[in-house]
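To assess whether ligand presence alters the predicted conformation, the chain was also submitted together with calcium ion. Input:
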Amino acid sequence: MTNVLIVEDEPKIANMERDFLEGSGYTPFVAGTGEEALEIMRREKIDAIILDIMLPGEDDGFSLCRKIREMTDAPIIFATARTEDADIVRGLGLGADDYIVKPFRGTVLIAHLKAQLATHQRLLGKEGISAQTEKGLQIADLTIRPKARQVLVGGVSVNLTGKEFELLYFLARHPNEVYSKEQLFQQIWSFDPIGESSTVTVHINRLRDKLKNATGKPYERIETVWGAGYRFHVEEKENKQ
Ligand code: CA
């Protein structure tokens, strides 16, 4: 059973999406606001999210995406009303996996959903990452439990600040991908244009120190790629624990 959360405030579109998902064998949940969406995320095991951008209430789709990303690695597909929004989705690096432009046909929605779920499954197998929400992220001896904001390395709990946690969790969710200091700064420090990207270096160093203290040896997964940025290194062959 594949549970799909639809976040959409226009009942007509929400119903259309729900009908297509049901017709294709998925189990849809519908939320009209960010609050409702987060409530469903906490209550249900959601395997994919279809996310509208313009939403009533506190969170728009962009900020909601960030919050959902802290809870799960399930694929997120933005449903955008304007093509400009698609550019924003691509540019922000919010952790969204895909987008479709409204109005779209149900068959297109299902095709995107299928592709994203398949990619996600492949990544889970290949990278040896288990992404169940309850268990958190598991990469070899590293465990990240986003709900509890807890990090264990080799069974030893590591006490991280909020930003250190977010930085580690972001890098670990995107194994072997290189991110520049600027990208990481945008990602973790909420796109604040005033801040300093050197903050990232400081936090990376602290993170490495803390992980090193926990294991008693240098933590080598967080790599510096000279002139480019940082990446979280995972061996292709590393298997699920
Ligand atoms: Ca809307």
